[in-house]
Design the sequence.
């Protein structure tokens, strides 16, 4: 089983079809107790609660609200896409098939990640 300590920021991410889809920009370990914070992680940075949590715990990755519960509980990798318009994608740790020195290979293609 792949855990967050196998993944390092900056690794290249390859989807199940062999396409390079970006680089790891953040790794979040699984945390069953994250329920108290998952709402704050999906709101605006101007939200007073989020500002307090950020001051106490540090910056939290912004996760789409509809994905936050599943991703925070399972652990995830945030993938920064290539190019100006590519944006970020999120892959649960369970979607990682294998890891080598410089790459993460996913068991899903890029379109399946968007449906997480």
Sequence:
């Amino acid at each position: 089983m792949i855990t967050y300590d196998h993944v390092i920021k900056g690794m290249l991410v390859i989807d199940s079809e062999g396409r390079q889809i970006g680089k790891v920009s953040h790794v979040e370990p699984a945390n069953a107790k994250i329920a108290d914070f998952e709402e704050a992680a999906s709101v605006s940075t101007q939200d007073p609660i989020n500002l307090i949590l950020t001051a106490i715990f540090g910056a939290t990755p912004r996760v789409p609200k509809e994905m936050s519960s599943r991703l925070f509980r399972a652990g995830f990798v945030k993938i920064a896409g290539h190019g100006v318009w590519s944006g970020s994608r999120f892959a649960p740790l369970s979607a990682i098939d294998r890891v080598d020195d410089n790459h993460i290979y996913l068991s899903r293609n890029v379109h399946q990640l968007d449906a997480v």
User: Anything to note?
Assistant: The chain has four helices and six strands. The CA atoms of residues 13 and 104 lie 5 Å apart. The longest helix spans residues 48-57.
